[in-house]
């Protein structure tokens, strides 16, 4: 249907060779680090490191461009909304006020606000290359085993892997139903809002019943094969950890500790150049 | 974890997939920026009543996290958590409504709507904005307005579409004690 989604991209690269577990741990540590810090220096370092990783992975920019454009747009609109609502949030955070332009009414322009917005955009953006990389270099089936390995119950991990497995199928169902309804003149893409909302039921209901039937079939098949009989399970796709894996985890861990200590050594998570 | 049946596991997986597809393709824009009729939450509420809190909570968490990851490249954790919370919260009344056996009474519909309104109000107006402030240091008035708009639109969506889904489903079930001996 012409809409691109991120999926696994096969390629011979050091990032691909790492086990899914390593990449999952790395991704989670990286997310935690960016979630806590607001320190410009740390964010820049994390951002540069993630771009570096991206280059190593041999994933080409244009293969994931649509996501990056999508996200960039979202982050920019968000920053703009923040400015509209609170033009002097930066002044509140950094405690000083350097006016660059008095502006119109409450919409002033201060150095603090610009710096705060820059940090906000940076904070939202630095995680994106790592997250994208994690997604396109980890095979879906290995992803489930990795979740299980870091302590997620295997039944939940299996549900995640089922979700990834059935996204294309459900998308196909959805397309078929939407096309069939459109052929009857029932559309959700045109017309007044209320009518569209009403029409969406004509797609939702068949999709619902198809999915319930699918749930029935799949769970019966799994029960017949004895799924869930044991407390533990093994994973066909699980690979043993190698030296490179421990090295990678160690590096990300160091980076995380470093970012935490730089962020909190002076008691504030903001870096204040003013 | 032993009470987590195979059917619930599969419902979680397939449910999360449906949630993702609906939020990508079946969200109807309202004209207000960043606000659309999210049919995915009507579906989530439906699954909550059908399969209970754990399944629906996981559908919310997994579905939203994967959706963000696949479409935006990175999960928006503050809102992912709320989706899980909404699924779990609505699922708490699943047993009392008991749609499989009893059909859907007016009382059941009222209970469903009261619950979803309360749970979503807490989720979108309280939890999501507070997390946004804690994590991203965004201005309070912005995130609370965002939360209030999301709450209103999602409560209405679940209230109308979610209820209709439940009614349609209940009509396909035969009520307990509906068989009569022929004279």
UniProtKB/TrEMBL annotation, chain B:
Gene3D superfamilies, alphabetized: 1.10.1760.20
Signal peptide positions on this chain: none
PANTHER family per UniProt: UPF0397 PROTEIN BC_2624-RELATED (PTHR37815), UPF0397 PROTEIN SPR0429 (PTHR37815:SF3)
Membrane topology according to the record: Multi-pass membrane protein
Name of the protein in question: UPF0397 protein QR695_14905
Keywords: Cell membrane, Membrane, Transmembrane, Transmembrane helix
Keyword Transferase on entry: no
Organism: Exiguobacterium mexicanum
Family of this protein: Belongs to the UPF0397 family.
TM ranges: 6-27, 39-64, 76-97, 109-137, 143-170
InterPro entries: ECF_substrate-spec-like, UPF0397
Localisation: Cell membrane
Pfam family, one: ECF-ribofla_trS
Upper lineage: Bacteria, Bacillati, Bacillota, Bacilli, Bacillales
């Amino acid at each position: 249907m012409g809409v691109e989604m991120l999926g696994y991209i096969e390629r011979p690269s050091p990032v691909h060779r790492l086990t899914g577990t390593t990449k999952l741990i790395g991704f989670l540590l990286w997310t935690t680090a960016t979630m806590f810090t607001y320190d410009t220096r740390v964010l820049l370092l994390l951002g540069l490191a993630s771009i570096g990783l991206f280059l190593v992975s041999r994933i080409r920019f244009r293969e994931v461009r649509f996501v990056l454009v999508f996200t960039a747009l979202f982050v920019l609109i968000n920053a703009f909304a923040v400015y509209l609502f609170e033009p002097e949030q930066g002044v509140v955070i950094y405690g000083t006020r350097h006016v660059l332009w008095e502006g119109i009414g409450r919409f002033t322009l201060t150095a603090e606000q610009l710096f705060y917005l820059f940090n906000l955009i940076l904070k939202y953006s630095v995680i994106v290359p790592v997250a994208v990389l994690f997604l396109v270099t980890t095979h879906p089936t290995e992803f489930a085993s990795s979740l299980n390995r870091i302590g997620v119950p295997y039944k939940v991990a299996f549900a995640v892997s089922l979700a990834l497995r059935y996204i294309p199928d459900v998308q196909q169902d959805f397309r078929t139903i939407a096309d069939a309804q459109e052929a009857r003149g029932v559309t959700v893409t045109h017309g007044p809002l209320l009518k569209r909302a009403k029409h969406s039921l004509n797609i939702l209901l068949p999709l619902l019943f198809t999915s319930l039937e699918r749930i029935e079939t799949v769970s019966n098949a799994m029960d017949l094969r004895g799924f869930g009989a044991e407390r533990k399970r093994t994973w066909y796709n699980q690979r043993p950890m190698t030296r490179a894996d421990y090295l990678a985890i160690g590096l990300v861990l160091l980076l995380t500790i470093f970012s935490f200590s730089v962020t909190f050594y002076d008691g504030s998570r903001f870096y204040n150049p003013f | 974890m032993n009470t987590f049946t195979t059917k619930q596991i599969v419902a979680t997986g397939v449910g999360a997939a449906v949630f993702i597809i609906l939020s990508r393709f079946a969200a109807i824009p309202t004209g207000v920026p960043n606000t659309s009729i999210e049919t995915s939450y009507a579906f989530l509420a439906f699954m909550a009543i059908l399969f209970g809190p754990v399944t629906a909570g996981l559908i919310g968490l997994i579905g939203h996290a994967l959706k963000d990851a696949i479409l935006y490249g990175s999960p928006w954790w503050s809102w992912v958590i709320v989706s899980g919370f909404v699924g779990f919260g609505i699922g708490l009344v699943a047993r009392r409504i008991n749609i499989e056996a009893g059909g859907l009474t007016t009382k059941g519909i009222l209970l469903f709507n009261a619950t979803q309104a309360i749970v979503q109000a807490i989720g979108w107006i309280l939890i999501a904005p507070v997390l946004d402030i804690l994590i991203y240091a965004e201005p309070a008035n912005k995130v609370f307005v965002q939360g209030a708009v999301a709450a209103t639109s999602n409560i209405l969506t679940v209230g109308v579409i979610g209820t209709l889904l439940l009614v349609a489903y209940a009509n396909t079930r035969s009520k307990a004690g509906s068989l009569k001996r022929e004279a």
